Amino acid sequence: MSGLTQIKILLVLILSTLLGGCSEDFSESKTPDIKGCIYKVDEKKMLVIQDISKEIFDEIKDLPMDQIKEDNRLIQLSYNDSQSFHKGDLVEVWLEGDEIMTTNPALAPAKKIKLKE
């Protein structure tokens, strides 16, 4: 094999490796924007209490929403596949964009929601 052919093969391998690396989705952060427990699920939306353990959630899960809203950790997420989740599920949430409406509860669109193991 000539030296020129070897160089061509090497260049093809290097370019293939570089292009393969570019296919990774960098738009999605590896760490979730929100971790919490689902308080309520409706069609295409859910209420999540942020930064709460399953044990503490079990103690407050039957409190009225007005009492939980006082803590300002409640966020309403719009999500097309919300029906596949249930009250009490621990979840990790990646938001669509950086904008969280500062209402009470806060509002934001979710890009991805995953059950926390």
General description of the model:
By secondary structure, this protein is of the alpha+beta class. The chain has one domain (34-115): Nucleic acid-binding proteins (OB fold (Dihydrolipoamide Acetyltransferase, E2P)). Helices cover 27% and strands 31% of the residues. It is built from three helices and five strands. It has a five-stranded mixed beta barrel. Strand 1 (34-42) and strand 2 form a beta hairpin. The chain is elongated and about 80 Å long.
What's the CATH first level?
Mainly Beta
CA gyration radius, whole angstroms: 22 Å
CATH superfamily label? Nucleic acid-binding proteins
Distance between the termini: 53 Å
CATH architecture: Beta Barrel
Q: Give the beta-strand count.
A: 5
How would you characterize the largest beta sheet?
5 strands, mixed, barrel
Unreliable residue stretches: 22-26
In sequence order, what are the helices and strands, one letter per element? HEEHHEEE
What's the quick description here?
The protein is an alpha+beta fold and 117 residues long. Helices cover 27% and strands 31% of the residues.
What descriptive keywords fit this protein?
single chain, 117 residues, alpha+beta, 3 helices, 5 strands
Topology:
Blueprint: H1 3-22, E1 34-42, E2 45-50, H2 54-60, H3 65-69, E3 74-78, E4 90-95, E5 106-115
Parallel strand pairs: 3-5
Antiparallel strand pairs: 1-2, 1-4, 2-3, 4-5
